[in-house]
Give the backbone structure.
Amino acid sequence: MPNAPGNATAGKHVPASDFKNLPVTLEHVKAAAATIRGSVLVTECNESRTLSEICGCTIWLKFENLQFTSTFKERGALNRLDALSPDERRRGVIAMSAGNHAQGVAYHARRLGIPATIVMPIGTPMVKVENTRRLGAEVIASGKTLEEAGEFARAHCQAHGMTLIHPYDDPLIIAGQGTIGLEMLEAVPQLDILVVPIGGGGLISGIAVAAKSLKPDLRIIGVQAELYPSMYNAVNDRHLPMRGDTLAEGIAVKAPGRITTEIVRQLVDDIVLVTEDQIERAVAMLIAIEKTVAEGAGAAGLAAVLAAPERFAGRNVGLVLTGGNIDTRLIASVLTRELAREGRLTQLVIDIVDRPGQLAAVSALLAEAGANIIEVSHQRTFSDLPAKATLLELVIETRDRAHLDDVLSSLSAAGFKARCS
């Protein structure tokens, strides 16, 4: 089972000699840390006491959503751009991205005076498209998926003599992302488990190299959206389907990297899959509890812990909030849907007699029960009720599901047939 609990006390122990055979080593990550120092934030890694209490373990959050571009992708992008020759800088760079890599490349390319072109899949959230343009890059929309955008980017790159800045399958990119692992262990050396989202695998590969080199018994758990289990399939020889729209579009990658897959296969202890409901809940919880905005991919780590708290019980667990680039309308939808799941926001449908005083009677009952009316509408035409009846539709706010049950009981006792729609 993708989400089956595992042993959380000991991770894969890789002999130090084996690390030398990997395309990225601790020395590469340390060199990347020196390269990006002063240009990329060393973000906070803080304990969340409330989330720790909820999850039954000690949760430490790495706030990469507070980078200037609201994403960890700045790290790898800058490390790769810094390695360009003067001629490569003059000819410019191109990247394919669903948004976060785009912003990291665009921002640091502009800082370094390098022309940048970003190819983004059609349907990329507008907040990411506009932010990328604002950072000075030329944006081209092409392809329905990141892979199709990548095909266009490679062709455009070759035709114009540019350098491709791959979002994940590049040793310099991987090393740059791995600096997060260095920072987390420096801030919290007692960490037992790191839970890291996986798209193409650049982030978890870099973190795994750094963290396992410094603390071999540390467990590394990867997380993917259930709709896009590409790395899970690759390392487990599975063929789960990949399809649909996910809230975690930042990790909706159909084909993980060749380099990253090999590192993940050797160093990552497990990969779990999380559902859309679990991701939504994690996004809403981070806003409500930590007052921080994480996009779907950024909240995937918390979603994994909430989905199987028993596997993390009593441990020090580090989560990377990888990004905060989420459309405000989508945030509103996620928060509203979470209120509905908790029974705090409910749409009621009540059959009433179409005569004066009925709405007032329902309103009085709801007020007496402590419910707040948010919306009211009557449906007289499009229903199968008798002509002298009407359908009253209400959106009400209650404290929780138990309170909602009390409200429904009060309406029923007064003779009103109410149902949740």
